[in-house]
Amino acid sequence: MISLSPKVILLVKNRALGDSIMGLSSLSYLRSLYPDAKIIYGVPKWVAPVYDLCQIDADEILPLDFSTLVSWWKLWWNLKKKSVDLVYEMHLSGRSKKFFDLFSSFNAIYYHFHNHHLEINQDLKSKVHDQGIIKPLIQRDLDGIWSAYAKESPPPSFLDFVPKMKLKGPDVVKNFVILGVVATRKTKMWPLEYFVQLAKLILENKNLEVIIPLSGNLIDLEIEKKLKSLGLPKDCQILRSSLTNLPQEMSGSKMYIGNDTGLKHIAIALGIKSYTFFGPEPPLEWHPYDSTNHPYFYKEPLECRTKEAHYCGLSECDSMICLNEFLPEKIFNEIFNKV
C-alpha cells in the first residue's frame, strides 16, 4: 500500500449505469484498504439518483459533469472544499482525465487511473497489473486499485466482491419476475416477440406476476408499442419509475430475465437471481459474476462475432443468429425447471 494515508478519496466511474453498478465492487475493496477514510463515489450526473435511497460503501455520491467550462469550475471548487487528497479513476475516459490531470497537478494530490482499452505496457504511468489482458470488468477495476495501492497483498478476486446496494427501508418480498427488454443497442436485445411469448408462459404456468421496466424516452415508448402490437398480455405491468425509485421497485423480486444492460446489474447488486441473454459480447468480460448464481445464455463459437475484435460491435444485424435461436419455450423450461 502507498505510504500516503488518505483522508478523503474520490473513486471515479464516469461511465454508463451498468459500469457504475459494477464499480461498487471496487468501492468495497477500497473501503477494505482504507476503512477510516472518507470515500466519495463520482458517477455521471444522470446516474447519481440511482443511489439516493441505497446504502453503498461510500460516504457520499458526487455527480460528475464535464460538459462545460462552468461545470468544470463548479466541480473543481467542490473538490477543493471537500479536501480530496487521492483520486482513482476506473475505466478512464478522455474528458475526465483532462480534468483530473489538471486538478491533481495544481493541487498536488495523487491521481491514478486504469484505461481498459490500452494494450500491455502501453500505459507506463498507470502500471496496472495484467494491463491489456481480457478479464471480467470488475476484475480489471480491482487489478487497477491493487496495482496502485495494495501490491503487498495478493490481488483480490472479482468473485469475492459482488456489487451490493442495500435499500435504506425494509426489505419486501415481491411475487414478480422482471423482464429486461431494453439494451444500449439492438444487437444486444433478445427478440421482443420472444419476450412476449415468455411472459405468456410465465403467466399461464406460474403463480408469478411479470413487470417490464421502461423509461419515458422515445426509444422505450416505441418498444412498449411494439410489445403491445405483438400481443403482450394485459396482466404484464409496464413499470415507469424514476431512477431514484427504480432499485426500490425492483427489490425483492423473484428473478431478472433479460438483456445485458444496467437493469441486470442493478438486479444483481440487490441480490436478485438473474438470467442474461448475451449476443454480440462475450460473458467473460461483461458478466463479471458467478455463473452458477447468475446463469446466462450464449451461443458459441460464432465467427461473425469476432471479425474485427473479440466481440461484435454492430448496432444492427439482419441475421441475429447469436440470440434468435434461444427460443422462449426452451428458456422457460431451462429456468423454471430449476426453480
Structural class estimated from helices and strands: alpha/beta
Which percent range fits the helix content? 25-40%
Number of DSSP E strands: 13
Number of domains: 2
Strand content range: 15-25%
CATH topology of the largest domain: Rossmann fold
Q: Order of strands side by side in the largest beta sheet?
A: 10-9-8-11-12-13
Order of helices and strands: EHEEEHEHEHEEHEHEHEHEHEH
CATH architecture of the largest domain: 3-Layer(aba) Sandwich
Radius of gyration from the alpha-carbon trace, in angstroms: 21 Å
Structure description:
The protein has 339 residues and is of the alpha/beta class. The protein has two domains: 8-166, 3-Layer(aba) Sandwich (Rossmann fold); 171-336, Glycogen Phosphorylase B (Rossmann fold, 3-Layer(aba) Sandwich). It has ten helices and 13 strands. The strands form three sheets. The protein has a six-stranded parallel β-sheet, with helices on both faces. A five-stranded parallel β-sheet has the order 4-2-1-5-6, with helices on both faces. Helix 9 (283-286) links the parallel strand 12 and strand 13 (296-298). Helix 1 runs parallel beside helix 4, helix 1 (17-33) packs parallel to helix 8 and helix 5 crosses helix 10 (328-336). The longest helix has 17 residues, at 17-33. The mean pLDDT is 92.
